[in-house]
Predict the 3D structure of the following.
Amino acid sequence: MWGVDMGDNSKVRVIIHRGTNQIGGVCTEVATDNTRIFFDFGSPLEGEGNQDKLEIEGVTKGKVNCDGIFLTHYHGDHVGEIPFIDASIPIYMEKTARKILELQQKHMKSVGQPVWANKVNEITVGDPIQIQDLRITPIASDHSAANSVMYLIEGNDRRILLTGDYRLHGHYRDKLVETLKNLGSINLMITEGTTITRDAVNTYDEEWVEKQFKKALEEYKYVFLLTSSSALDRIAAFSRCVPNVKYMLTDRYQLDLMKVYDEEREKALKSHKVLYISDYVMKKAEKFGFGMAIRANYMFPLIVKDFFERYPDDTVLLYSMWKGYRELPSIKKLLNICNGKERTIHVSGHVTKEDLEQVLDIVKPKKLIIHHTSANTQESLFEIPKETELMKLKDRELIYL
Ligand SMILES: [Zn+2]
């Protein structure tokens, strides 16, 4: 299929298979005459856009024609449809992110979660992978999923930056900005645009989140943190805010995740003295106070209920997730226990409109595609550098670089 001579215009081909007008389920193809690579293979978010499973010749059906799939991070809207690809296709993922994903999958195995992360090839930030005429370099990013990466894709004199999900208000902002400044010339940037329609300027960052955590832990003896088990930077930050006299608690699963997270983490961002709940530790913690990272599973709500009943004035719950999750039945039930004694302390994992403008100003790509967005990118929602051409694509439209 790729043998057709397209002349000079066919140096690199790009197809956004899904994501030009929906957030979840992104999948991007970058190919030359000899090489065919994919980036992310996600599931759509509930109720949005095209919900059909991706059907791609050579990947999910027919004779295999794919040299690899690179994953930017472990969120389901980026990796959810990996189980449907041909098992012989190699998958690549940043090494710590891969370990985290494997733990998650094994934990959820009993409820039908397929385990495949154990078969994924580990890659390292800054170490390029050469696959025939494409060279793919993972770049450290900053997102609510730990160890997320961007990819620099080089080949046939073309250079593409695929951002994955990212932001400029997290712990790794300065590092990321520095990297972007040193990227050199980019022919095409494919960026996420999850929040570009939200007008409110997001002035809060992860440092603000930490301050709020500290405040709550000073004001209350028992502080529950309700967040995603995969929000490891957030949970580590919370653990660092727990005063030394108090206990930082969670369950074994969360503790295992924190251990993997900590392995190669710089000291300032590691988690601090996290213990898993046992009868012995609980007795001590009840006496001295605690911070506890919880989820809406079968166990934690019982502990939350117990403390809100016995110590209503000393207990608070911190809600640290996207507000949409409040509607999930299990979360709703858990929040009801607190009777309004909760605080929302959260910032998004996605780049704001203002920060996207800043990123574009740094990278100054020749061409720009916005995916992972429900926004109509036909409209100019933000300022782009005058040398940048915004490409308006549909899903599965083929472009040449
Ligand atoms: Zn994500």
The pocket of zinc ion is lined by residues 73, 75, 143, 145, 165, 349 (CB under 6 Å). The chain is about 25% helix and 20% strand. Residues 1-7 have pLDDT under 50 and may be disordered. The chain has two domains: 13-199+350-400, 206-344.
